Amino acid sequence: MSKGMSKSMSKGMSKSMSRNMSRNMSGNMSKNMSGMIVVFIGIVVLQSLLVACGTSTPTAQPPDAVEAAKKALGTSLDVPVGEIEVVSYEQEEWPDACLGLAGSGEMCAQVITPGWRIVLQAEGETHVFRTDETGEMVRQEE
Length: 142
Known about the structure:
2 helices; alpha+beta
């Protein structure tokens, strides 16, 4: 084979390969773009569902801390727990282990304490309680 033929075959093959590669790349790119769009739409839908589920309305099952606060109020007022109404409850972060309600001379660990602020109603009066996450520590606001 002569050098001239070899060069022209090489150029022809090079152009042909270049066209095939270009077609394949463009086909792959459109497939990749389609896949990326589907993934993006999926993420948007998932995020919307998570936001809708993450609203701050109380759950069907109140946390144990609510029951602990109701028991504390029932004991303090000598009222049956069944007669105490839960007005609201929300998660809070208290400034210390005493839930920000340390008594005179009381020593409290200075740690952020996750918990609940619970508003209850009994005998026509509103009572506000603070608890830790589990309801083991319960204190009434004055």
